Amino acid sequence: MIPAPGGELLRAPLFHTPRNPFRDSSALESYPDGGLLIREGRVAGCGDYGTLRAVHPEVPTVDLRGGFLLPGFIDTHIHFPQLRVLGGLGRSLLDWLDHCALPEEARMADHSYACRVAREFVHGLVSHGTTTALVFGAHFAPATAALFEAGDAAGLRIAAGQVLSDRLLRPELHQTPERAYRESSLLIQRFHQRGRLMYAVTPRFAVSTSEAMLEVCQTLLNEHDGLLFQTHLNENLQEIAEVARLFPWASDYLAVYERFGLSRPSAVMAHDVHPTDSELDRLAAGGAAVAHCPCSNAALGSGLFPMRRHVSAGVRCALGTDVGGGTGFGLLKEGLQAYLLQRIAPDGMLLGAGHLLYLATLAGAEALGLSDKTGDFRAGKSADFVYLRPPADSPLAAVLEREQSPEQVLAAIFALAGAESVREVRVEGSIVYRSAAVEDQ
Ligand SMILES: [Zn+2]
Q: How many angstroms is it from 397 CA to the middle of ligand 1?
């Protein structure tokens, strides 16, 4: 849909975090009778509706009261080929990979199957209010291309890459370093910076990548401007022991990636549940971000994320759903799970609703180097947002009948809202998703 040329003024309560609440206690901004002025796909104003209306009387108002406007959610860790293994509970990481994830990832060799899953995957993102995602593609180049095409067709911001591995998985998932270089280079030429797409160099994890493969990753990053990098780090104790066995020269897990220049700004390391203090200091100094995936960490029994240690060391953290080790596409649920696990973690942080919103939005934009484009409603940013409106007979609708502070309202949204509350999602002002339930508003 083409945005209205003269702009629109959307009227609804709105929330955003234009600053980092881990550093600034006033980071959460909310307007109970809010206005979001959109022009040519960008935010032209955000604040109190009456104030914006007085300054821009010529712009038509779209009355969305009864629901809420939030910046579009940003998922910093998710695997496209694992959609159909969601719900595989009861295993730990390496066992889950062997029995659940990798057999399904091997099916991505069938291109028509991969195209089908790519469409389902993109629908999963938009229908949960996710407008930007950093995605592990498939081990196969055509399947990874299918993901890019589906993301492009849907109008989403997708950063993704072919998953690279040359050992210890299943033979059909391995590439030689030469083939990995050739196929990745072609995908970069075809998709990097095409519309809203970006390419991310994606070695699966140190266990499944030889030094020659990590060298290929370094070469690709050196040969092209603006690429992202993503991989896994310190997810599970057994995995960490395996990395120590395979790279005896490395002082710790992060040192493997550092040797090849891969821990850098625009790098996103998934999990980091078991870091050493030295690794945290080096992540902060190198500028890499961590994708915290609390549903996955609990589902696979990986451990409790040491958020306070990350924040104290100055490591940037954002949220990832880690489909399919996680439990679904919802970043509201992921935020709630982050809150819950910090409540029970030794030395856990007490997270407020503003922290959860920041982790699900602007923190992700910062991790992906996109904070000049998306993540909050500051003027000039892309109009990427989700309109939430709970079904009339839902517990959330009942809770919201009570008089409450904006922070309590946002906390209730994190606790109770799921995909059923996502009514409309836009990227650059254009609708990318509208719920079938939208008629009963
Ligand atoms: Zn993962």
A: 34
Which residues are found with C-beta within 5 Å of the ion, ligand 1?
A: 270, 322
Ligand 1 centre from 135 Cα, in Å? 9
Give the number of other CB atoms < 10 A from CB of residue 178.
10
Distance 136 CA to ligand 1 centre (A): 8
What pLDDT is recorded for position 441? 47
Give the 3-state secondary structure of 315-371: CEEEECCCCCCCCCCCHHHHHHHHHHHHHHCCCCCCCCHHHHHHHHCHHHHHHCCCC
Q: How far is the CA of 224 from the centre of ligand 1 (A)?
A: 25
Label each residue of 194-223 as H, E or C. Answer: CCCEEEEEEECCHHHCCHHHHHHHHHHHHH
Task: Give distance in angstroms: CA of 319 to centre of ligand 1.
Answer: 12
**pLDDT tens column, 124-133:** 999 999 999 9
* Residues 246-256, mean pLDDT to the nearest whole number: 98
Query: Would you say residue 312 has pLDDT above 70?
Result: yes
Q: How far is the CA of 365 from the centre of ligand 1 (A)?
A: 19
| Tens digit of each residue's pLDDT (9 = 90 or more) over 83-130 | 999 999 999 999 999 999 999 999 999 999 999 999 999 999 999 999
Who contacts 312 (Cβ-Cβ below 8 Å, separation ≥6)? Answer: none
Q: How far is the CA of 366 from the centre of ligand 1 (A)?
A: 19
Residue 324 Cα to ligand 1 midpoint, Å, equals: 8
Of 289, 217, 222, whose CA–CA distance to 256 is shortest?
217
Kindly list the strands in the beta sheet with 8-11, ordered across the sheet, starting from the edge strand earlier in the chain.
42-48, 34-39, 8-11, 61-63
Using the predicted structure, report yes or no on whether residue 27 has a pLDDT greater than 50.
Answer: yes
Q: For the chain, percent helix, then strand, then coil, each to nearest 5?
A: 45, 20, 35
H or E stretch at 29: strand 29-31
Is the pLDDT assigned to residue 3 strictly greater than 60?
no
CA of 401 to the centre of ligand 1 (A): 39
Integer Cα distance of 439 and 94 in angstroms: 45
CA of 104 to the centre of ligand 1 (A): 14
Give CA–CA dist 142/122, Å, rounded.
17
Taking the centre of ligand 1 as the mean of its atom positions, its distance from the CA of residue 79, in whole angstroms, is 6
Token pair belonging to 6: 């003269």
